[in-house]
Amino acid sequence: MPKTKKQLSKDSDEEFTPGPSSQAPSSQAHSTQAQKAAASMDPADQEKRLHDLVQYLLIMDQKKLPIKKMDINKHVLKEHRGAFPVMMKKAGDALLQVFGIELVALEDKLKGTYILVNRVDTDTEDLGNRDGQAGQDFTPVEWPEEDDAKTGLLMVILSLIFMNGQVMLDSYMWHTLKKLGIDTDFNHEVFGDSKKLITQEFAKQGYIEYTRQQNSDPPVYEFRWGQRAKQEISRKNCLDFVSQLYERDPEQWTSQWQAVLEEGEAMGTTSQD
């Protein structure tokens, strides 16, 4: 997992950072305050709030939008907001043990928000084998139903970014998608306003970053993987997806295969820490 930093918010609620680093020495005093707040709760009330919190996180994640700390405090913890880090730790443990889902704190511009990441192994072949249609390609002619089509489009976009060296100009993105039958200058029969879907919805969900290059005039925008994509999708899955589409061995993509190997080594190092 990426390293995270902890700080006090304006309302003095401590941020919760899942994982072993959540008990760093600099935050022990604040953790003690949160533990006292949690200990002051009636046991039955704490259990109910924990159940409500888990349900709230699962429901809100269906929208695939980062879940805000202030919304959790407002709608679930309420007067027990001081126990936020303790309750989030308990909820994170429950989600991982029961559902195999990890509660992840986002960083940078999305600090103070959280996502749920399925840690159960998945196979990229599933993206091309929905509803019993083995080997279904993402072509200009046949796209799956809307929800699955969005998943397919997202995977195509992330793959393009990855294969282009982790960053891609929007002009090149639009040009490439047009070749796939998605002209972002016109409404698509499945996606509607595809440019809005990509630059706004996918960006809000944390799957991509769509940013303007500094000092560009006229403005030039570029795409990168967002924090949710980095948590949910491995480079190997992405390369496997592209290799299936082009019927090539992953090793034939030299630089991308090297990136996959480096990712595997990094994950192995992290698991040993």
UniProtKB/TrEMBL annotation:
Annotated InterPro entries: MAGE (IPR037445), MAGE_WH1 (IPR041898), MAGE_WH2 (IPR041899), MHD_dom (IPR002190)
Pfam families documented for this protein: MAGE
Top-level taxon: Eukaryota
Region (Disordered): 1-45
Any one Gene Ontology cellular component term annotated for this protein: nucleus
Coiled-coil region(s): none
Name under which the protein is recorded: Melanoma-associated antigen G1
